[in-house]
Specification:
This protein starts with a strand and ends with a strand. With 129 residues, it is mainly beta. Strands 2, 4, 5, 6, 9, 10 and 11 form a seven-stranded mixed beta sheet that branches. The chain has a four-stranded antiparallel beta sheet with strand order 1-3-8-7, with no helix packed on it.
Length: 129
């Protein structure tokens, strides 16, 4: 059984960098041909795909984040991370990591829940001073 678990700070101050880690068990993040994604859901809004890293380390990003997002991985720890710079209160959301069996579409299709077969439980991040 594949399991994903998000971890990171629950509270971040404006202008700081948010860092989250997704630890994967039951599968390797280098297994062909999976894609490991970060998705968030602000309060009262829908899902927003943020970025992904694939099985050989290629990264993909939502252009709307204007280069603030960075996804990386540590294969020795079987985890991948999200860094989001210059956060504002609009970055307050539940952040999820999820696995997909296909590359990102780089369109609104990436926001659909059924594009992903395994999800973490999500972690609440609040941006506030």
């Amino acid at each position: 059984q594949v399991q994903l678990q998000e971890s990171g700070p629950g509270l971040v101050k404006p202008s700081q960098t948010l860092s989250l880690t997704c630890t994967v068990s039951g599968d390797s993040i280098t297994t062909n041909y999976y894609y490991w994604n970060w998705i968030r859901q602000p309060p009262g809004k829908g899902l927003e795909w943020m970025g992904a890293i694939n099985y050989y380390g290629r990264t993909y990003y939502n252009p709307s984040l204007q280069s603030r997002a960075s996804v990386s991985r540590d294969t020795s720890k079987n985890h991948f991370t999200l860094q989001l710079t210059s956060v504002t209160p609009e970055d307050t959301a539940v952040y999820y990591c999820a696995r997909a069996g296909h590359p990102p579409y780089l369109s609104d299709y990436d926001n659909r829940r059924d594009e992903y077969d395994y999800w973490g439980r999500g972690t609440q991040v609040t941006v506030s001073s």
